[in-house]
């Protein structure tokens, strides 16, 4: 039987980079890891409509935090032309301070410095496509209607390769099943292929639907 490998984990250290990059002492490692998870969770909950692609977190010292955020709609986070950038930056600082006071695991330093790098991303990212499908599936659209709307409204410029898989009680069926669609090429075994992958859940009245999206963008050329 064929074994499934996570497309991102398969390419880490080569064409893909880790979403958290830092070193920590053994006693603080789990605390920093949970803190990163807490920050991402809160941002997804509050600014989910912004269409996050990736939130990368870098740490050099205890009180310095650098975040690189790839998001489809940057104006939701920082307003037009970055008018609310300082407010958003202060919000991140408050999140970190609140978490450390709540858990009492890491000492809250007197001052936390957060540097933000916010980039716009294309609407063909795997995370953006999954969020689009979730929005309509939770509004009780059939999965076929949601896919048709995806091709009509979202994917005006088709990527070179795309695969979408939806599993669960589709359209309220009593027996769960899996449906998928693929267009173009998807070289999952090619390590220099830039494969964008996302796996998310849609909460419907019939239960959870699992959504997986693979997007092939291009091949990296090694010198």
Walk me through this protein's architecture:
This protein has 223 residues and is α/β, with parallel strands linked by helices. It has two domains: 17-120, GMP Synthetase, Chain A, domain 3 (2-Layer Sandwich), CATH 3.30.300; 140-219, Ribosomal protein S3, C-terminal domain (Ribosomal protein S3 C-terminal domain). The chain is built from five helices and eight strands, in the order E-H-E-E-H-H-E-H-H-E-E-E-E. It has helices spanning 26-46, 74-78, 85-103, 126-137, 143-154, and strands at residues 20-21, 52-59, 64-71, 113-120, 161-168, 177-184, 193-204, 207-219. The strands form two sheets. It has a four-stranded mixed sheet with strand order 1-2-3-4. Helix 1 (26-46) links the parallel strand 1 and strand 2. The longest helix is centred in the first third of the chain and has 21 residues, at 26-46. The chain is globular and about 50 Å long. Residues 39-114 form the KH type-2 domain. It comes from Boodleopsis pusilla. Its main location: plastid. Keywords: Chloroplast, Plastid, Ribonucleoprotein, Ribosomal protein, RNA-binding, rRNA-binding.
Give a quick precis of the structure.
It is found in: Plastid, Chloroplast. With 223 residues, this protein is α/β, with parallel strands linked by helices.
**Architecture of the largest domain in CATH?**
2-Layer Sandwich
Order of helices and strands: EHEEHHEHHEEEE
The rounded distance between the terminal residues' Cα atoms is 36 Å
Q: What is the CATH topology classification name of the largest domain?
A: GMP Synthetase, Chain A, domain 3
**Fraction of residues in helix:** 25-40%
